């Protein structure tokens, strides 16, 4: 701990400002995500740590397998309810399926999109690739005058917007939303598809 010169009488506010600045620096510095050790996972399964190494050579490999399993589940959930009646309906069902899975599995969603990436663990499966391509194709079909690069850019904007709606609902559970999640997604899609 660094030696500190005592503040002169009446300058307590200066210390308060320094304390807030120091705490702010500590609180806003990105922290590595806390991941379970292989030993902790082995204990939870009632096996020795060496048994884990028969299947996974590192903590990263095990976490990556968990992320991949959740990504597969997300893809299945989105594709299971995919509507093909109209291009706009397809866009709506893709976005809604994604958002509903996220809210039904908030811990898995946070692991895939926040915790694992913050820990530097990137899945071999890109969580956005398949969804973005499906959204791009549906947006291009819904707006034939729009070229594919523009449709791809709009797909990224829509994904980012839906991602934001999901995270706000996860992190702010007591926030009162004037519309349902599907209503908010429909509003986003209307604005997107009606924009020239």
Characterise this structure:
This protein has helices spanning 12-28, 38-45, 49-52, 59-80, 87-104, 106-118, 129-142, 148-171, 181-194. Helices cover 68% and strands 0% of the residues. The chain has a domain at 60-194: Tetracycline Repressor, domain 2 (Orthogonal Bundle). The longest helix is centred in the last third of the chain and has 24 residues, at 148-171. It has nine helices and no strands. It is an all-alpha fold and 196 residues long. The chain starts with 11 loop residues before the first helix and ends with a helix.
Per CATH, the superfamily of the domain at 60-194 is: Tetracycline Repressor, domain 2
SSE topology string? HHHHHHHHH
Radius of gyration: 23 Å
Which structural class should the secondary elements be placed in?
A: mainly alpha
Uncertain regions: pLDDT < 50 for 5+ in a row? Answer: none
The largest β sheet comes out as: none
Q: Can you give the mean pLDDT?
A: 85
Strand tally is 0
Beta fraction of the residues? under 5%
Q: Which architecture name of the domain at 60-194 does CATH use?
A: Orthogonal Bundle
Distance between the termini: 60 Å
Number of helices: 9
């Amino acid at each position: 701990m660094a030696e500190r010169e005592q503040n002169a009488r009446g300058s307590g506010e200066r210390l308060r400002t320094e304390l807030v600045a120091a705490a702010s620096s500590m609180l806003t510095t990105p922290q590595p995500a806390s991941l379970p050790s292989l030993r902790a996972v082995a204990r939870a399964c009632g096996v020795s740590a060496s048994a884990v190494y028969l299947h996974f050579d590192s903590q990263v490999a095990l976490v990556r397998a968990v992320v991949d399993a959740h990504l597969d589940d997300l893809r299945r959930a989105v594709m299971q309810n995919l509507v093909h009646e109209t291009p706009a309906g397809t866009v709506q069902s893709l976005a809604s399926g994604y958002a509903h899975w996220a809210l039904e599995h908030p811990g898995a969603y946070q692991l895939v999109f926040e915790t694992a990436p913050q820990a530097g663990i990137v899945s071999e499966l890109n969580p956005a690739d398949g969804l973005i391509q499906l959204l791009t194709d549906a947006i291009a079909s819904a707006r034939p005058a729009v070229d594919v690069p523009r449709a791809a850019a709009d797909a990224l904007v829509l994904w980012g917007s839906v991602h934001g709606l999901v995270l706000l609902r996860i992190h702010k559970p007591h926030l009162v939303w004037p519309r349902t999640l599907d209503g908010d997604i429909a509003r986003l899609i209307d604005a997107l598809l009606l924009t020239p």
